[in-house]
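ZP: hey, is the LLP complex queued? I don't see it on the tracker
AM: it wasn't, my bad. submitting now with these inputs:
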Amino acid sequence: MIDFKKLVSEYKTPLYIYDLDYMSSQYTELKDAFKARKSILCYAVKANSNLSVIRHFAKLGSGADCVSIGEVHRAFLAGIPAYKIIFSGVGKTDDEIRQAIEKDILYINVESEAELSRVEIIAKDLDTTCRISIRVNPNIDPQTHPYISTGLHDNKFGVDLGTAKRMYIKANNSQNLNPVGIHFHIGSQLTELKPIYESAEIVADLVRSLQNLKIQLKFFDVGGGLGIKYKDENLIDTYEYAQAILATLKGLDLTVICEPGRFLTANAGYFVSKVLYEKQNGEKKFLVIDGAMNDLLRPALYSAYHKIEAVTDSKSDVRAVDIVGPVCESGDFFAKDYPLPELSHNDLVVVHSAGAYGFGMGSNYNTRGRSAEVALENGEARLIRKRETFDDLIALEKEFLD
Ligand code: LLP
């Protein structure tokens, strides 16, 4: 049981709290599921990019999946070795590609023919060879929220099979490119195994046809996407997940790479706010808290459900309330018509499953400083990011005041 009151008395609100021990157990469960093969879990840094969180995974032996050179630098700073860092994303700048090559990371995940050409030109300019992987878009519907679905040709991600094959041939013939991997990632918060299995089969078949062309890959990167329980979702069993993927790789000597984000961190995280007031507009009841959409955007952006718990002595019956923040947007809510008892000023409201795509998607909208972040490990709490101050928010502007 986490003592939210005690943590809040020390670190104030709004506050993110991460249970690192829970992250370890998720990591170990998934890593063990792949134990029949060589595998690397490359933590998807975007899910929660706090340096101490990345360092925690580094200590467990994790690699890192990064989508900007900033994330690559974070991974290095946190102690992830270069040979376990991969760099994905549909739009990499020349400068990002150059830095990734210079840092000699495991590979760059290439997402278009045009990008392959840029990587080749830059590698040539640096007089080196760049290890690459190609992201294949298998055109499979992952059956998740459209905003986090990436595996259909309608989505901007990856390349179709024919293009991928052409790109491998080009890379294989290039002095400056070394094709070592193949990648797919069909979406996030996946709760059905079938689309993952079907994608893996398609991509494994492509590996086989490349072998016939004497193009020998080493890494089979299955992306991330494993769903978690926010409410009552069907969960994919990790063992069955790994078995389904491994079944598609019969006869192939490949190291499996998996890029989990949400699975490792979401349910390790709590976002804690204080109640400011209750108010009523006509029949509608609102609970106004000191956290807002700039702290946790998921409900506003995806209408995402997060379980909410009140920490209170209130003995009242529950009623339906909209839980909202102070930001000047009607979209600034955590939940609508949520059953909570009557709460008083300074009671706590805890938003669950906030460890992935929470803090990282935050902003300074309405000139609100971002929350502090606290880690729990072996029963101890420690600060891993200070609360932003007003001075932090204006630091890059104030010299320009005339
Ligand atoms: N690999 C790639 C190439 C990705 O694009 C992503 C996530 C991951 C791995 C990690 O996926 P995960 O295991 O966390 O599902 N902001 C959204 C989620 C966006 C996911 C983007 N890509 C949300 O809050 O639901």
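AM: back. DSSP finds twelve helices and 17 strands in the chain.
ZP: great, adding it to the tracker
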